[in-house]
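Anyone else keep sequences and structure tokens together like this?

Example one:
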Amino acid sequence: MKQDVSINSETNSFIQSSEFNRFGLITVVILIIGCMGGIAVGMGAIDYVASLAAIVFPTMITLSLVLSVSPMKWILTGTAACVVIDLIIILYFLIS
């Protein structure tokens, strides 16, 4: 039970730290999302509507969260989702 408390305190500490460093993290988020999305589209997603939509929708949602000054927890969750989706699509087009 004590381990759960330490994990929650570490998570809360990370979230508070990310809120404090918001502007630095936002620039990193925009850079990572933009570059990975561009690479995924350039690998071949531009030819398929479904894969293009799978890249564009989460990216635009995350960028909208950044623009609306949403909590960093939401922004970082959206960024993680975008990175995972982009990596899956990049790997798919590398293999095929």
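And example two:
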Amino acid sequence: MLQQFAVRQIAKRAFVDAVEILSLIAVLEAGNSNGSSEALNKAGAGRAAGHIQRALFTRLHVIVARHYLPVRSNSDLHAARAFELLKNKDVRAGVTSPEREARLAQAETDWRNVVQTIG
């Protein structure tokens, strides 16, 4: 039961992270595509804008990278742990339904492919 709760908590956190990732990407793209960099440079704020851009990239990297950390303890709440917990049939049955099993299996396949690519 506690492991099912952990999977649900990780899913909630991953959703919030996904929304933040999309927001960060949108801000970074807007900064590169609408002449704002040129305007900031002309206004003498180019260095500040550069620092902000690097901070946004750093935040983006931290959010994405933490989901790929090795599982170290039961208190870890990242995607790698969720996929590890989902290998347990009881946990899996408690967090999914037969109708959603195919989507979960596809997510596991996608996860393995990404991990193999970056590993």
